[in-house]
Design brief:
The chain has 149 residues and is mainly β. 5% of the residues lie in helices and 34% in strands. It is built from 1 helix and 9 strands. Strands 1, 5, 6, 7, 8 and 9 form a 6-stranded mixed β-sheet that branches. A 3-stranded antiparallel β-sheet has the order 3-2-4, with helices on one face. The longest helix is centred in the first third of the chain and has 8 residues. It starts with a strand and ends in an 11-residue tail after the last strand. The protein binds zinc ion (ZN). Zinc ion (ZN) binds next to loops.
């Protein structure tokens, strides 16, 4: 698995409290497991957790299933001026998991080195209430950028 950093280094706004729909996701994070919601009716995966399947509309049997955390950085934005005085810069990425669903999550590292479609790996950030925030950082074995044609 991966390392965990303290809450004082949490970039960006803190996640919302868990509720009835998201509790299973957050509970898994306490054990260092990233999960997405699976629909038994159509086999679809989705994130964030919802009361119905976005693929087929099914409402029965939706449950969290673990994912590997392998992902690519679809897109990202780096915040240089935060509205509430928190430490900047920080980067929030749209991260596409190998299983398909997309997460919005902090991206750790040098913002100048981030590239779209870059492989990233999962890391965890500790939250004060014991949950962990999934975050991503460039994968160490990421292939070098292709030269411009
Ligand atoms: Zn479905």
């Amino acid at each position: 698995m991966s390392g965990t950093t303290g809450a004082s280094s949490l970039p960006g706004p803190p996640p919302a409290p868990a509720d009835a729909v998201t509790e299973a996701f957050w509970q898994a994070t306490r054990e260092g497991t990233l999960s997405v919601q699976h629909c038994p009716a159509c086999g679809g995966h989705q994130h964030p957790p919802r009361v119905l399947c976005v693929h087929c509309g099914g409402i029965d049997g939706l449950r969290q299933v673990p994912v590997r955390g392998a992902a690519v950085l679809d897109s990202f934005t780096t915040v240089h001026r935060a509205p509430d005085g928190r430490a900047v810069p920080y980067t929030v990425g749209r991260v596409r998991l190998a299983e398909g669903p997309v997460l919005l999550a902090p991206v750790l590292g040098d913002p100048d080195s981030f590239r779209c479609d870059q492989p990233v790996r999962l890391v965890w950030l500790s939250l004060p209430d014991g949950r962990r925030q999934p975050a991503f950082t460039p994968a160490p074995d990421a292939p070098p950028d292709e030269p411009e044609p």
